[in-house]
Amino acid sequence: MTENQQAKMLELNRLLKQYAKEYYEQDQPSVTDAEYDHLYQELVALEAAHPELKLKDSITQEVGGRVLSGFEKVKHETAMLSLGNAFNYQDLVAFEERIKKLVSGPITYNCELKIDGLAISLKYQDGKFVQGATRGDGKIGENITENLKQVKDIPQILPEPLTLEVRGECFMPKSSFVELNEEREAQGENIFANPRNAAAGSLRQLDTRVVAKRNLSSFIYAVATPEALALTSQSSGLAKMNELGFHINPEGIVCESIEEVWNYIQTYQEKRHDLPYEIDGIVIKVNEFALQEEIGYTVKAPKWAIAYKFPAEEAQTKLLDIEWTV
Ligand code: NAD
């Protein structure tokens, strides 16, 4: 029995690593996100049931992604992590229960749209944009400064001479994605499967002129150095980023209970198709930084945040018929 379980874990780990390589390094996934998430949860469940069989190189202990050749490496001062996942209301209740074991007193949650793009880090020195990087494996990313300078809503100069690092998502708006694919089709080139792949492929172009034509956009959702601005909460951090000229998603709200969070999720599950950019879920973050620090991190993700993933849609599966491209 145990041998069977171990063989299953080995096989799941091998498959998931293959899919992660296709997704993060080649921008050419061969399975849908829902299929990937399903296999991943299967491995998580097996590891929870048989902790003694957990593989040393389990994918559940790694942040996905590698640094591609062609780009200089950048060491992140603080790791760029992944997020734990929730798929239903019960998962959110369990998230809150875990938190309440670690901290006492009232908790508020900042709810944000989960933008389906590529995580980026932006560094500013005395108010000047000096370095942009991908997440990579979480510790080391790719230096894509010149490419990020082509993203029009990323400020090159801040209104204050601040030295700070912010993080966010770079994405391709739906309309740019449709236009780009129409153009590529007309020129007999392979089309991109979805806006995320198009954004990831574009940011890894070695020619900045190509990136400039791709019409990428960004939403900033974190200050990696909150002490630089004496910030105390996620919501006040976003307000400050907005003042500094970063593009902040306007749909976020602060919720006082998991019921309120759930209502917000329901609203955006309906509204997601009306948005001009793709989202694949909702990110729920404990709002107060002091509480976040108390709650802490696993090797892979903050314990004070969770990503609720929208259920798979049929249209997503059909994308597998399209030829994938970089
Ligand atoms: P994730 O996508 O579940 O969550 C972490 C990421 O969310 C962050 O790195 C950030 O880029 C993004 N994000 C967007 N909006 C955010 C916000 N408002 N606040 C904070 N973060 C925000 O984790 P991951 O490790 O990047 O990717 C795992 C997911 O990728 C899987 O669950 C799966 O859906 C997909 N995946 C798919 C395949 C495949 O073959 N189809 C393979 C690997 C991974």
From TrEMBL:
It comes from the Bacteria. The active site is at 114 (n6-amp-lysine intermediate). NAD(+) binds at residues 33-37, 82-83, 112, 135, 169, 285, 309. Belongs to the NAD-dependent DNA ligase family. LigA subfamily. DNA ligase that catalyzes the formation of phosphodiester linkages between 5'-phosphoryl and 3'-hydroxyl groups in double-stranded DNA using NAD as a coenzyme and as the energy source for the reaction. It is essential for DNA replication and repair of damaged DNA. This is DNA ligase. It comes from Vagococcus zengguangii. The chain holds residues 1 to 326 of 669 of the full protein.
